[in-house]
Amino acid sequence: MTSLPESSPSFSHVMLSNKLKAILGQIVFAVNVFVLFLVLAENRVLIPDWLHVFGRMHPLLLHFPIVLILMALLLIGLPDLLKNQEDSRTYGRDLLLLGTLTAGFTVVAGLLLSHESGYAQDALSWHKWTGLLVFWSSSLLYNFLQHPNRLMIKSSAAFIALIVVVSGHLGASITHGEDFITGPLKSDEQLVVSLEEAEVFAHVVYPIIENKCVSCHKASKQKGELRMDEVERLLKGGESGPAIVPHDLENSLMVQRINLPQEDEEHMPPEGKPQLTAEEKSILEAWIQSGAPTEGRVQELPDSSSIYSLAVNKFSARQVSYDFDEVSSATLEELTNFYRKVQPLGLESPAVSVSYFGRANFDPGSLEELAPVRVQTVSINLNNMPLEDPDLQSLADFVNLEKLYLNFASIQGQGLQYLKGLENLQLLSLAGNPLQDDAVTQLAELKNLKKLYLWNTGLSESALDELRAALPGTHIETGASVSETVLTLNPPVITFDRAFFRDKLTVQLSHPIGATTIGYTLDGTEPDSSNHLVYTEPLEIDSDKTLKARAFAVGWIGSQTAEAEFIQSTIAPDSYQMNYLPEDRHKGDGQESLFDRKKAIPDGWNLNWLGFLNNPLEVEMDFDTPTTINSMALSIWQNGGARFFPPSEVQLWTRNSPDQTWTLAKTYQPRPLTKEDPSLLRQLEIPFAASDVRHLKLLAKPVERLPAWHGAAGNKAWLMVDEIVIN
Predict the structure, then answer these.
(1) Which long-range contacts (CB under 8 A, 24 or more apart) does 336-344 make?
(2) How far apart are CA 672 and CA 647, in angstroms?
(3) Which of 45, 80, 386, 390 is buried deepest, with most CB atoms within 10 A?
(4) How far is CA 330 from CA 327, 334, 342, 464, 721, in A?
């Protein structure tokens, strides 16, 4: 064993004099008495506030006794570390005295802290008693160091060292999580879960919460009275209110706290703990925005939802490999239009999903247009489309199709024969179709199905029993029959070309269930039994309107409201240039988004949003001929909780030719956002009118400092823009 350098003869005098040792020994005895008093009377004594301040020093104090006691025990248990064994015992005894004294203060602070910590008593109990054992056993060992039985001394030293380690581990488990030390050795559960089996909450959302939140919000440690280790308690919230409000980012405390600056004391996770990545924040926000579902698999989500895209990216990049080539973005863009969306299944994935919208405009022949992506298409959503059995023949060539949604079509069953060759088909949804009992013969051939949805199809119970026997490995969901349950109608389908229009716009309303009455309003009010117009023919929109529509039918509960906003924009520049790029998180289609007449939706991942944070929105517009402008507006997203604010100032500049200097024509400062203002999409009217305009520059500045009422006061606000409206 390597020996430490021999000490100077005077070193023992430098450490502790005999008089000082006697004083410290008396203090240790007094602390023992006080600790014993706290242990025996802790539930019957009122702790004054000034002592709680000392209690909160527990995390600071605990490092001193750990180091001192372990060093002392090392010298006592292994006296040969120094050439002079007497020096080892002397230094060991002095260090043990100092370690015992600091351990006493640490124990006192810990006992005081336990009265207000919010930690569960079960977790505290083991840590408390092991800490007390360290203090009491160190006190005893110090007083018996001169005992002639050296084996007993060494064994006691080894025992105390073990208890120090155990107590330290238990304390770390309370503050950092039970698997804080061994966590990096654990395998990531996601690595062994396939995309097909992945659940939205269990495998996409909860791993983030478990890794970044649960260490402070669990049974053994409930900061803010919030537990996040169980989904019911997570949704319940804590002392500050609901951590999660489904569909509402603004009032979800989790979203507010994770978006605060890291130096803010309310930022979560707290400073010093592992922080959320940008992807993790996006997943949590998209999950809440989609309603915070706690059940269901990733592949059961709508293909167009943000949480679906983010979830698939987590798994498809690692798990699913396809042996076909990727389709060019130009091809995908060409196939996407106002009634059909064709998009990649995930980042860097060659697989494609297809979704159709607008029953009135659907042409079964349009499925033939998907020939360039037949091999790559793994999911098709044809819900609410007027498909009949012969139309299903067009799907037979989608050889890699995995998910097929055919809800509320007009399929009776014979056309299902065309799906037999789709060997990769794992999910088929036929809810709301008038299936005949002989459809079971065709369905029984689809042996590879894992999920089959047959809600409200009219199949008899005997036919369903026959199908269950033919497909024992398929989960068949039939739901409740209409005769047993009063069902809610689906909202009407609103079909139109672009939400921003020049002169006129034709809008159609439809519903997949016959004998349904569609009531609507055009003034933004809610349609009900006493306030609605009955839809009979396509609507002609020639000014700004907010359309709201509901479906009603005898024997059904009225649907939720479908809503669309239409905005007239008669003027567009012949050319324009955006001088500052938006932030990468909200970059949309670049400057093309400003005049593309596509209406954004309140979804942070919608590609029509341009988000400005560090730079203003500055656009230079050129008109080939002198143009008269009567009104202007910015189409923005206002959401105080998400830090989406109107601009602090809007400037309009003009000039007659590119050679001239810009002249300030208008400065407008919108009303500042207040805490009571709702979250909504709005048209921010800019009071500007001019004639013979040839060159126009718009400058909109984001709010530099959030107001005092905001949880992130002092930080920058986002300016979220999707269109410039000129009339």
Answers:
(1) 338/496, 338/497, 338/498, 339/366, 339/495, 340/366, 341/303, 341/304, 342/370, 342/373, 343/303
(2) 9
(3) 386
(4) 8, 6, 11, 45, 25
* Contacts of 456-460 spanning 24+ positions with Cβ under 8 A: 456/431, 456/432, 456/481, 456/482, 456/487, 457/430, 457/431, 457/432, 457/433, 458/434, 459/435
Nearest Cα residue to 429 out of 585, 609, 299, 279: 299
Separation of alpha carbons 358 and 383, rounded Å: 10
Quote the tokens at residue 47: 């702790």
Q: CA of 452: how far to CAs of 45, 390, 444, 455, 560, in Å?
A: 64, 21, 11, 9, 26
Q: Which residues contact 661 (CB under 8 A, 6 or more apart)?
A: 655
* Token output for 154: 């060494």
For the record, the structure tokens of 474 come out as 């398929």
337-351, 393-407, 417-431 — which is least confidently predicted?
Answer: 337-351
Q: How far apart are CA 243 and CA 252, in angstroms?
A: 5
3-state SS string for 485-509: CCCECCCCEEECCCCEECCCEEEEE
**Helix H segments across 237-277?**
253-258
> What is the average pLDDT score of the chain?
78
**What does the block give as tokens for 14?**
């430098």
Do 527 and 520 contact (CB within 8 A), yes or no?
Answer: yes
Q: Are 16 and 24 in contact (CB under 8 A)?
A: yes
Identify the sign of the CA torsion 649, 655, 660, 666.
Answer: negative
Number of other CB atoms surrounding residue 689 within 10 Å: 12
Q: What is the pLDDT of residue 604?
A: 60
The verdict on whether omega for the bond into residue 269 sits within 30 degrees of 0, i.e. cis, is yes
Q: What is the Cα 635 distance to its own chain's centre?
A: 26
Say if residue 666 is exposed, middle or buried (CB neighbours under 10 Å; 0-12, 13-18, 19+): middle
122-160 burial: b if 16+ Cβ within 10 Å, else e: ebbebbbebbbbbbbbbbebbeebeeeeeeebeebbeeb
Q: What is the pLDDT of residues 221-265, one digit of tens each?
A: 667 677 777 777 777 777 777 788 777 777 788 888 888 887 777
DSSP letters spanning 357-380: --GGG--GGGGGGGGGGTTTEEEE
CA distance 541 to 114: 66
Residue 190 confidence (pLDDT): 40
What pLDDT score was predicted for residue 441? 92
Report the distance separating Cα 104 and Cα 107, nearest Å.
Answer: 5
pLDDT of residue 39: 73
Q: What is the DSSP letter of 6?
A: P
Tell me the chain's radius of gyration from C-alpha atoms. Answer: 35
Supply the DSSP string of 303-321, one letter for each residue.
Answer: TTSHHHHHHHHHHHTTT--
More confident residue, 474 or 49: 474
Q: Which two tokens stand for residue 372?
A: 């360039």
